[in-house]
Amino acid sequence: MNNQYQQVYVWSRYLRLFHWINVLAITILLGLGLIIFNAKTLGVSVDGKILLKTLHVITGYVFAINLLLRLVMGFFGKGYERWKKTLPFTKGFSQELAEFKQQPHKKYKGHNPLGKLMVGALLLSMCIQMISGLIIAGTDIYYPPFGQYFAKSIAIDSSKLDLIEPYSKENVDDQAYLEMRDIRKPFITAHVYAFYTLLFLIPLHIVGVIVAERREKTALVSAMINGYKYIPKKDNRDD
Ligand code: HEM
Asked: Is 211 buried (19+), middle (13-18) or exposed (0-12) by CB count in 10 A?
């Protein structure tokens, strides 16, 4: 290492773990989601669809728990886990953006302002996926946290909820079922549009990391593995 540079610990063990669990969960969710989306064209059977949706929802729980923990850490965590150092539009952000434009070689300990915009957009799309996903999991395969509620709302005999199964009409009131499908519609639409948004944002995020690394040369990529960046000892850097 050049002795003008120092090694600084930026991404905590918790943040790195969140990041890689998130990458893995989203990759599986995108893959399964794509198959569910094209199930008709692919000729997937009803049992196959139920299996795919169940796997998607179980992976969705891992994704949701990981994301909820991250949201909490934004308020109670330390250093770069906190929202102040993660999200755009906090106090002083427009100043940060102006400096970013004026000083192209400025080094950043945390995210540069464009990085903060990207993280904000990613987290927002992921929250929309989590909320819409948890709701449609209840209307479709009657899984928690809303499965019991929706099953009750469509049951002819609510003492026999165990008879209500995915893609079956047993113990299901036709009119109540249609009403439940109407409630579900906007959440499916949100789920699909947030999916398209993520398909656009994820490659952009990767390109952004490559461009930022070429511009700042702080070892951005390995920092998300070992936690350390390399920045000048003084001047031309952001704390
Ligand atoms: C980044 C996260 C996620 C992505 C990219 C994603 C993507 C998708 C896609 C593309 C579909 C197909 C939509 C369609 O057929 O119209 C889908 C369906 C579904 N997703 Fe997700 N999803 C995510 C998270 C979740 C979560 C957290 C849950 C719940 C725990 C969930 C539950 C469901 C369910 C139940 C369906 C089936 C809906 C149907 O009946 O078609 N998803 N998802």
From this structure: exposed
Q: List, in sequence order, every beta strand (DSSP E) within the chain.
A: 5-9, 107-108, 228-232, 237-238
Angle (CA) 229-18-21 rounded to 5° is 115
Query: Thinking of the domain 5-231, which architecture would CATH place it in?
Result: Up-down Bundle (1.20)
Boundaries of every domain in the chain: 5-231
Measured by CA distance, the residue closest to atom 18 of ligand 1 is 33
Atom of ligand 1 lying closest to residue 39 CA: 15
Cβ–ligand 1 contact at 133 (below 6 Å): yes
Contacts of 222 by beta carbon, 8 Å cutoff, 6+ apart: 228
Q: Is the CB of 49 under 6 A from ligand 1?
A: no
Q: For 136-159, how does the pLDDT look when each residue is reduced to its tens digit (9 = 90+)? A: 999 999 999 999 999 999 999 999
Taking the CA of residue 64 as reference, the ligand 1 atom at the shortest distance is 27
Cα 16 to averaged position of ligand 1 atoms, centre (Å): 25
Burial (CB < 10 A; 0-12, 13-18, 19+), residue 174, is exposed
Taking CA atoms only, the protein residue closest to ligand 1 atom 10 is: 33
23 lines ligand 1 (CB under 6 A): no
The reported pTM is 0.94
3 state SS of 71: helix
